[in-house]
Amino acid sequence: MDNTASERSGSSSGMQLAGPRLRGIRQDRGLTLAAVAESAGVTKGFLSLAERGKTQVSVPNLLRICEVLDVQLGSLFDYPDHPDEPVVHGGTALEMGGEGLREFLLTPSHETHLQAMRTILEPGGGSGGAYSLQADSIFALVIRGSLELVVDGTPRHLESGDSLTFPARSTHEWSNPGPVDAEVVWVITPPLPRQELFPARKKRGTAAS
User: Fold this and answer.
1) Is residue 67 domain-shared with residue 120, that is, in the same domain?
2) How far apart are CA 116 and CA 122, in angstroms?
């Protein structure tokens, strides 16, 4: 079995990892599905599906949900920590939002200078909309296939071997316009901020459901 087929059969889909964590954070905040959904601009049914890992969520929607819950996106990551082995073998499955893709985090939690991710994009897959990140710079390298990357409204078409560096706080979106899977390595500096997943309960909203 080749690497692509292995990733498809063994990787998670939708929000199977991040969804339950978002649900736990929401409940810890004492917020209802309806309250969070309304504030994030999504439907209650959609948020319920996302929390149960039953649907994919665009990057902009995931960031809005995190903002409403007052949690950093980086807090949802599993980090490939191997204290006795410095080599990262394949990375850990990553759910940072997006549609028609599989992502893997390649850098451990103790790395404070940069964060590397690998994305496999199906034809037509992508971020699902424009967004910005709380970091300084993003470097994108297309390993195979092609990538349509729009930064501050300016489209850039990248083919295998092409790379682009741009400010992380610029509004950007991306997709695979080609007929075959695309593979992209992203490097973000500094790493996306994170925090404790379940800080002290905040007295706001109504009882969680």
Assistant:
1) no
2) 20
Would you state the pLDDT for residue 80? 84
Average pLDDT of the residues in 27-47: 95
Domains contained in the chain, number: 2
- Is the pTM above the cut of 0.85? no
Asked if 170 and 140 touch (Cβ cutoff 8 Å), the reply is no
Q: Does residue 203 form part of some domain? A: no
85-126 pLDDT, tens per residue?
Answer: 778 888 898 888 999 999 999 998 888 999 999 999 999 999
- What DSSP element (H or E) covers 21? helix 18-29
DSSP SS3 for 147: strand
6 CB-contact burial (10 Å; exposed 0-12 / middle 13-18 / buried 19+): exposed
43 and 100: one domain? Answer: no
Residues near 1 by beta carbon (within 8 Å), at least 6 away in sequence: 9
Which has the higher per-residue pLDDT, 77 or 209? 77
Q: Are 43 and 37 in contact (CB under 8 A)?
A: yes
Query: For residue 29, what are the domain limits?
Result: 3-76
Q: Which of 15, 102, 27, 12 is nearest to 54 (CA)?
A: 15
Region 161-175: what's the mean pLDDT?
98
The pLDDT assigned to 3 comes to 38
